[in-house]
Amino acid sequence: MSQITSLMTDDHRHCDESFARAETAVAKGKWDDASAALTQFASELEGHFDAEESLLFPKFEAATGMTEGPTKVMRGEHAEMRSALTRMRDALANKDKDDYAGEAETLLILMQQHNMKEENILYPMCDSHLSGTDVANGLSERLHARA
């Protein structure tokens, strides 16, 4: 696995772990823990999206000239996931386990499909077109700064 692919895939797994902590807390009815875990997950997810949208995607688009391709699709999927996250926050605020579980399942499916596309298609393309650049270092700095 190349540098960008490895870094961003590892960050996907990190976000997945935070997502699971929130889901577990809701299932146990530990609302304060769930709120803290969801806040952490949302921050990590938004940090991941920001690193892609403000650094990785623009560099990839500049290097390839592709602005209507995979990055456009990924931005659209980011918007869908942000909407699902908003609905999860609402369900959590209402202490509604069923609504939360439904929205969490939706987000989980969106994330799994999205991550597969990034990890198997987009990130390897980024590694190919952006090798030898400082993009991986910039991504690493952004992802670690949010911690």
Would you kindly provide a written description of the structure presented here, covering whatever features stand out?
By secondary structure, this protein is an all-alpha fold. It has a single domain, classed as nmb1532 protein domain like (Four Helix Bundle (Hemerythrin (Met), subunit A), Up-down Bundle), CATH 1.20.120. Helices cover 87% and strands 0% of the residues. The longest helix has 34 residues.
Q: How confident is the prediction overall: mean pLDDT?
A: 94
The biggest sheet, with number of strands, parallel, antiparallel or mixed sense and barrel status, is:
none
CATH superfamily: nmb1532 protein domain like
- Tell me the radius of gyration: 16 Å
Total strands: 0
Total number of distinct structural domains: 1
- Shape annotation: elongated
CATH class: Mainly Alpha
Strand content: under 5%
Taking pLDDT < 50 over at least 5 consecutive residues as the criterion, the unreliable ranges are none
Helix content: over 70%
What is the string of helix and strand elements?
Answer: HHHHH
CATH architecture: Up-down Bundle
CATH topology: Four Helix Bundle (Hemerythrin (Met), subunit A)
N→C terminal distance:
24 Å
* Class from helix and strand fractions: mainly alpha
What's the helix count?
5
